[in-house]
Amino acid sequence: MPDRAPQPVERQLPTEEARDLIALVRDIVQREIAPRAAEEEDAGHFPREVFTLLSDSGLLGLPYDSEFGGGDQPYEVYLQVLEELAAARLTVGLGVSVHSLACHALAGYGTKEQQTEHLPAMLGGGLLGAYCLSEPSSGSDAASLRTKAVRDGDDWIITGTKAWITHGGVADFCTVLARTGVEGPRGITAFLVPGDAEGLSAATPEKKMGMKGSPTAQLHFDGVRVPDTRRIGDEGQGFAIALSALDSGRLGIAACAIGVAQAALDEAVTYATGRQQFGRPVADFQGLRFMLADMATQIEAGRSLYLAAARLRDAGLPFSREAAMAKLFCTDAAMKVTTDAVQVLGGYGYTADFPVERYMREAKVLQIVEGTNQIQRMVIARHVVGPESR
User: Fold this and answer.
1) Which of 101, 120, 152, 181 could form a disulfide with 187 if both were Cys (CB 3.0 to 4.6 A apart)?
2) What are the C-alpha distances in Å from 92 to residues 2, 24, 125, 151, 167?
3) How far, in Å, CA of 5 to CA of 150, rounded?
4) What are the catalytic residues?
């Protein structure tokens, strides 16, 4: 059996424009991202220059309105772009997903004046966003957040700490959820905060087992003053805005997970068809053939699941249940596929000379971010059997 080089994923895309878009992404991946991914991840280098290139290429605002600099692309196309980017380097794919999440509140709930003033720079002006919901004491229980915003004339004074913030310390703007009223979800409001606002500082980035090139840090708001014109939506509407953003964000994580899994499968196939043992390629042995078949099946099932959810979103139909299912299945599949890829490569899979150990470390975080997979099961169960008894 000859060595089998991995082939690009055959994608069913709705338009010729979408096919050209995927071709552009693959060209950028091959020239600018994949060749340096392993070295830069090992060094913990954040590829700001790549995000600038993606912005210049129109790839940071794909699912948003072209009136404000977006790409007018349906979610089913945007997510497949994320998958391609994540397969090359998760720091980039997840970074684009987080940036899109940070733009969601203003694009969906901002006034026309706010959108006209801020969105063009956010979507295509080279800026990079962060999404600030989680806190040290409120992760899964986001409605209990403690960061406060207090009215002071025509301004708000924001005080508190946000945790686990992707792009913490490097973001140009932050979508911040803060408490402006009563306890619980009804007392939360959304704000658009400049990354260089006075009183805003970042802690030392977390030391993570994977995605070392993507800075994750606490952000401290020490009396950060923002004008009321940067409040997004109504007072008390912030938690509803956050939940709507998370439904879409979960699809982004699902697509990134399938990208990482696909990269792991491609590496495993290349190795198994080229590695000789007992006088023949190890891919000839049924134990490994079946393992590779299972890996491919999980990837294809996950891709179909996230695309089905995306098409519901594009049609304006409810998709919260399907988004939770996609996030759950795709990230669990990525963890299984990347672990199996390490096994296929044997001892070599456990070394940093091959990328599958990095894929396995990166896949783990996808089961945690945008709502842990335990939270996804809770969301799905509520759709299936109704809310829990109190």
Assistant:
1) 181
2) 33, 15, 18, 37, 11
3) 58
4) 370
d(CA 324, CA 50): 30
Instruction: Dump pLDDT digits (tens) for 46-92.
Output: 999 999 999 999 999 999 999 999 999 999 999 999 999 999 999 99
Q: Which two tokens stand for residue 35?
A: 């060749």
- Distance CA(276)–CA(296), nearest Å, equals 22
Burial of 30 (0-12, 13-18, 19+ CB in 10 A): exposed
Write the burial class of residue 65 (CB in 10 Å: 0-12 exposed, 13-18 middle, 19+ buried).
Answer: middle
Other Cβ atoms within 10 Å of 48 Cβ, number: 13
Alpha carbons 327 and 315: distance in angstroms, whole number? 20
Q: What pTM did the predictor assign?
A: 0.95
Euclidean distance between CA atoms 318 and 309, whole angstroms: 9
pLDDT tens digit string along 155-185?
A: 999 999 999 999 999 999 999 999 999 998 8
